[in-house]
Amino acid sequence: MPRLHEPQLRELAARILIAAGVTGDDAATIAAELAEANMVGHDSHGVMRLVQYVDYVQRGLIRPDGCFEILRDEPSLLIVDGNFQFGQVTATRALKLGLAKAGATGSATIVIRNGNHVGRLGSYTQQAAIAGCAAMMAVNAPGPGGVAPYGGIDRRLGTNPLSIAAPRGERPLVLDMTSSASAEGKLRVAYQKGERVPEGWIIDAEGNASTDPAVFYATPSGALLPLGGALGFKGFGLAVMIDVFAGMLSGSGVCRTDLPPGANGVWLYLLDVEHFLPRAEYDALMERYVAWLKSSRRLAGVDEILLPGEIELRRREQRAAEGVEVPAETWRQLCELAGRLGVSLEDVAAKA
Length: 352
What we know:
With 352 residues, this protein is an alpha+beta fold. The protein has one domain: Ribosomal Protein S8, Chain: A, domain 1 (2-Layer Sandwich), CATH 3.30.1370.60. The chain has helices spanning 6-19, 24-39, 49-58, 87-105, 121-130, 184-193, 214-217, 232-248, 279-294, 310-322, 328-341, 346-351, and strands spanning 3-4, 69-74, 77-81, 107-115, 133-140, 162-166, 173-177, 202-203, 209-210, 223-224, 264-272, 324-325.
């Protein structure tokens, strides 16, 4: 199992993407997002996705030449059609335009239809927070999903993730979560490693509880459960509302069977902090709040109270020093994919 550092992760991803027909600039954008996901510990959204992405390109489900089409452009509103270009490329460009709008007017709403898998939502909201905006971002799966409704068996929802971030210097608060018990990518990681998953994550095709991720990928397939276990109606309710905001309002849709797997509808909302109160006042309130939370007495066995995003920041520091261990099966699949595309990864691993 190779252990790769961030430059090697980026090079690996860019090399494969360019060989698959992606332009250099777009490949760099996608590679940066994949590598960043690995660096902060979200391997489910990292370079392992390259196998899936290239497959989608070759099947025409991702269109590297898809245009970024602005359907509506107002001072605080942007509606975009991604035309099934890579989700990371579309979302990165939309975020940049949204930040400019929020800076000018105080707030901005951006929605994207016909997008592909945008990757880790927390990356975009963190970028917004560092730029001085509080941000909320949600993504729906207008096409075939993998999550059963609360009390149901059949797949009816996407994992419908949500991220909320708030500025705090270079270390913003970043909540990044799915409305399902787990991200699908975490099942994929466990499946490739031959590991079980926690109870309460999945059911098989008959609705029986399971800890074997293989049942999710079987035919007939099982399903992920909503977030919350016995209180899964809360995760289900959140997923339903995300379908409304990110699916219906974006024009991407819901319960569609004519879209490829991995299609995303996106809803992004930005608030420029300095339009609401002086930044120095906000920063003082934030530090006072953080100190207040961390000063709480702790339960036995708890060393520290961690805020949203702190685990990812610390994991990034750790992996920057130690590198990212790529699982053997993931590395085998990536090397096999690279070989089919006529490129080699041996020198990438040698540089690590």
